[in-house]
Amino acid sequence: RLSALFHGGRLNEALSHADEALLTCPEHQLWQIAKLHYMRGKVLFAMCSSATAPFESEEVTTAPSAPVDAAIDYQFVELTLSAFEIASGFFEAAGDEVGMVKSDLRWAQTAIDVLFRRIVVRRESGPQMPLHEACRLHDRDIAFGEVEDVIHSALSFLSAANHPLLLIDAIAALAEVKCIQGENSARSFWAV
C-alpha cells in the first residue's frame, strides 16, 4: 500500500502510512523497519526534491529575483537525511548490504540535491554561494567530504556486487559532486 501511495503521487498519505506502519512494526523485524524508513525517506525526498519544489513554488516563479533556495524546506531535507541514515543502520543490522548502500546513496543524493540548487543553479543565475555556507541547513550541516566518501564507497560496492542500475545512479551522483565543486569538463564528470 505504501509503495502504491508513493507511486500514485499521494505523498502526504504515503508519509502518514509509513509513520503508522513504523509505530506498529515489531522491534525484532529489522529489515521491515529499515524498508519503512527507506520508503519514508523516498517520500520525504519527493516532497522536497528539485523536481517539484523550486519550479512549482509561486514564490520562485512569480519573482525571478527570489533566491534559488527560497522554496527549499530544510526541515523536510533534514527529515529525509535522517530517514535514510536510520534505514542504513537498520539494513546494516539486518545484514542487507545492498539495502544499506541504497540508503547511503539516497542520503548522498538528498544532500547533493540541496547543494546543487544552492551552488550550481546560483552560479548560472547570479552570485555564487561558497560551499561551506551552502552546506548549512537549519539544525545540521552537510559534511561534503562525507557525501563524497559515501558515493565512492557505493561505487566500490556496487561495481563489485554487479548492480549496474545502482552503479549508474552512483556515477551520476559523483558527476553532480564534481559539478558542485566547479569541475567543468564533461570528461571529469564521468571519471571515477
Write the H/E string, N to C. HHHHHHHHHHH
Q: Approximately how much beta-strand content do the residues carry?
A: under 5%
* Largest β sheet strand count, sense and barrel closure: none
Instruction: Give the helix level as a range of percent.
Output: over 70%
Q: What is the radius of gyration computed over CA atoms, rounded to a whole number of angstroms?
A: 17 Å
Please summarize what this structure is:
This protein has eleven helices and no strands. It is an all-alpha fold. The longest helix has 29 residues.
Structural commentary:
It is built from eleven helices and no strands. Helix content is 74%, strand content 0%. Helix 2 (11-24) packs antiparallel against helix 3 (30-48). The longest helix is centred in the middle third of the chain and has 29 residues, at 97-125. The chain has helices at 2-7, 11-24, 30-48, 53-56, 58-62, 74-94, 97-125, 131-134, 144-161, 164-180, 186-190. The protein has 192 residues and is mostly helical. Residues 52-68 have low confidence and may be disordered.
Write the layout of secondary structure elements.
Layout: H1 2-7, H2 11-24, H3 30-48, H4 53-56, H5 58-62, H6 74-94, H7 97-125, H8 131-134, H9 144-161, H10 164-180, H11 186-190
Helix pairs in contact: 2-3, 3-6, 3-7, 6-7, 7-9, 7-10, 9-10
